[in-house]
Specification:
The protein is mainly α. The chain contains 6 helices and no strands. Helices cover 57% and strands 0% of the residues.
Length: 104
């Protein structure tokens, strides 16, 4: 997994939790750190489903930096949660969501 982390750091320009490729970081965070409920995974059944990041053996520090690089981007969470958040905020677009996070 170390070679994968090194390769991803290089491609993303990820350095100390900062990257100019925030959208790519958000997409990776969504797939690596969130369980896929759309495929029928039941999160309330008590069984612990391993996350893809764990299955790949990615370092926790690397994943924290990756998550920090896309902090505040709605693309970093699953679609079903994004819909819930957007409806709870009363806004219907991404810019409203991100500006609310920045102003909080």
């Amino acid at each position: 997994a170390k070679w994968l982390e090194k390769w991803l750091r290089n491609k993303l320009g990820l350095n100390n939790g900062v990257s100019s490729k925030r959208l790519a970081c958000a997409a990776l965070v969504r797939i690596l750190l969130w369980a896929d409920e759309a495929s029928g995974l039941e999160l309330t059944d008590g069984d612990e489903e391993p996350l893809l990041a764990v299955l790949l053996g990615l370092n926790g520090r690397f994943m924290a930096e990756l998550a920090h690089a896309c902090c505040g981007m709605i693309e970093s969470i699953p679609f079903h949660l994004a819909d819930e958040i957007m409806s709870g905020l009363g806004g219907s677009n991404l810019f409203f969501f991100e500006s609310e996070l920045l102003n909080a």
